[in-house]
Amino acid sequence: MSLFDISLKNDLSVSLNVFESDDAANPSLPNYIARLTFIGTISAYGTIDLFPDGEMTSVYICYDLNNKPVKRIVVSANSGQTSFDITTVDVEIISSTYSFFEFIKKYPNDEISKNFQNLIEGGNTPPDAIDAFFKSTVDYQMCTYVSYILVLSTLSRYSVTNQVDSLADVPYSLKSLIEYLGVSWPSLLPDIAVTNFTCTSFNGNGNLISLGCDVAIKDIDFGSEITKNIYTIAPFNSIKVVHVFIFFDYTISTDFIAISLQFGLDFIRIPVAPNTDITLNNPKITFSFDPASEEVSFKAQATIPFKLFDNPPFNADIAMVIGVQEAEIGAVISGDNSVLLTPPVIQGVHFTSFGVGMGVFFQPIIGYALGVQGSFTIGDSQKDVQVEDDRFAVVCELIGDIPNPIFISFYVAQISLNDIITIFTNTNFNIDFPVSVKQLSFVWQENPSQPVILPDGSTVQYLFGFSGYLDFFGLDFYGDVNIDPVTGVNGIITMSPYSLGPLTLKGKGEEISIKVDDAGNPIKNNYVPTTSTEELAIQNAQKQVLIRAGGPVMQLNTFTSPYFLVSIAIEFLECKESVEASVTNGGIMYELDFEALLTSKMSCVIKNYQSFDGAFMYGADFMIPIPNSLDVFNLGDIHFKSTINGELKIEIDNDVRFTFTGSFVFCGYNSSIGPIELNVNIKSLQDILDIVEQWIIDDAASLFGSLYADAAHWINSINQEIILLATNTAGYVIDGFYLVYGESVEAVGELLKGTTYLLDDVSIGLKDVYNASATAAANVMVTAYNASEEAVASALKVAGYTADEVAESLVNVFDASMESTVGILLEVGYSAEVVAQTMVNVFNATEEEVVATLKAFGYTLDEAGNWIVDTAKATADDTKNAADDIIKQAEDGTKDVADASKDAADEAIKATTDAAKDATDAAKDAADQAVKAAKDATDDAVKQAKDATDAAKSATDNALKAAADALNPF
Q1: Residue 889 or 372, more confident
Q2: Among residues 229, 176, 224, 167, which one has the least CA distance to residue 195?
Q3: Are 385 and 379 in contact (CB under 8 A)?
Q4: What are phi and psi of 835, to 5 degrees?
């Protein structure tokens, strides 16, 4: 029943056909074009009355007699408008729109054309945006979204044979419609003829569009195999034509937009096993035209009941895609699917959103896969673990109609070992260094005694645990790890053999491999294989080795210490040793024994996969030539003897860098070595020690320069035998003072303090090197050695100084008198004649003084005027010497020695008084007796002998003086 009447007035000079545009799927919404039902014809300048059929909103479209659109009229009971005019303006709008389509076809590279194509790309451009575009142009401002839809649908329509009522049944080119809307039609797909194209304002405000059409099932080319599978599950033998809604899917990208046609059915049946199927009621069907695969797919969506574990029954929204070989089926749980109960052993894991995954395989045989897939979280609000791949899979088998779980699998990209213990167990464990676990594949299985083979080819022996990489300072160990709420985490993990420059880590680790697809991607466990491709990928997967055999092995046990124990076969610098390494916050630590080469074992630490340190000590003992700038003089060799603390480092940046650094204490100085760059191909530790030795030799100037920086340091180093000279004589050293250090002769005395050179050599060196005066030389010897007058004089004589020079030095240095000087000169071997002349030359002595002084020392003049030795004086000297011998003997003698000495002294005095010769003989006899007596002496008489000896010496001196007086002819 019509609620109101309207009239259409034609102001044009041509007749028009009026059609009602009716979208049965959206009857209450205004459409731009829909199923066209012929209403009547308006003659030129005529009027027609229309009677809307009870709808609040009706749409009418006027076409000219050539079936070109003229005007769209929207009638609303609420608007109050009952009359509508069709004028030349309407014709101009449509004409302008036709011109626009011709323009963009003819000039696709024009700025207007490109801007418009960019605007409509994707097919879902809002009407307001298209209206705004036309308003922004100069030549097409009259165009509107309405005229755009009317013209593109007309351009997409097949040719009309009947010019009136057949428009309702005239087919459209779906390809043309889609492309005019801004979406590319798959190039390999044939066009599809559709009818009753509809374009409706879906949300009533004109900005959200619903597109639809009628499609004959037979016109959809799925391919013969897929069509057979579709007809197996869908009732298309009885249903020939369906009304579909057109959607554009941007899931991939705007470059690959899938065209989807959706409609509903009463039911479909899904085979899950031979003679077994599941009926899905009221499914939603989607035909998708995929530009990437150039295929048409069939998808069905419906709801079925489902039950798992101890969870209450829930509904699963099934989504099924039919292919050549399989139907991939997924299901999303409707209702409260925030938590899915897990087996009790899996604590800390929460399955949140989840759905049922099913796969139906048509070829080569009918089969199925069934499970629950979804997302999960780990931890709680206090300890939430971030996961990149939050999918899990519960793979089931059908026991009757009930799905029974076989295993549960999920992945975690990375988590710390501390967090694993905290979240998954009830044990306490915490280490002070990070252990990151990567690429964890968690698995729970129903029956560990009958382990299942997982899709990736692995099998596990535990109820719940994971396989993955445990990162210890960048070194990745891989293996299966058991998780127990009570005992914590334990397992055997291994790593591939590893080399870091000259360091090689090996062991008894076994090979670990997984399965990968043809592209090398690992076969995942956390999904249900719902396609034949996935199923075949599992069956045909190739083995990929993750861990090569022969690498280090780690025992992991977080229940008792040590938590980590690594067995490693080390090869490093000709040392081959199997060690048990510990893992601390500093790295993986162990010791290597290089035996006698080092004074300690080498303490090694692998800090990370790019860094190794090896610390050790060894004793160094070698000679270092002192570098100097004077080729004419050699300062000697440094005797380097010290303990060197060494450290070897291997580091990888862009290249492998092998270095030695070290330190030592030598002569009280702390010195550093290196870093020394080493060849990574170096063979032995001895080679490295030789390189260090050469480095020290080459760097001697900076390391040991202080030892010979000046003459004082040089001679001090020589005294301490730090510097060794090939010719370590006073003359050589003095030569060095002069040539190398430019020291004055006056400085030599202080420099030679503490040395033990012979005074003769010192004197000779001073005279030869410095041409030093006797006084200067004497001063040096006194300063350096506190030398006596006699020692100085003797050394000067050996050096070739004259008696006069020696006498002057004695006077200048010791303030010696003439008498003492004469005695010293005679004592060191100068002749009486030379000494006599020296007395005159140095002391200006008179003849009488010369004679008297020399006579006092036992010299006299013969008839020829030559000085001869006075016999009496010589005898007295012999007596004195004998007495001195007695004194020495007496110090070790007995009381008998003392008595004998006393008697000998008395005899000597008496003999001297009577006659010099007799006294001499008596003294000699007494001395002989004393010597004999000393041989029989005992220790008890030592003191008494000393007293007696002193008395004897005094008596002897008196006797000598008396003898000299008696023989003096003057």
Answers
A1: 372
A2: 167
A3: yes
A4: -65, -40
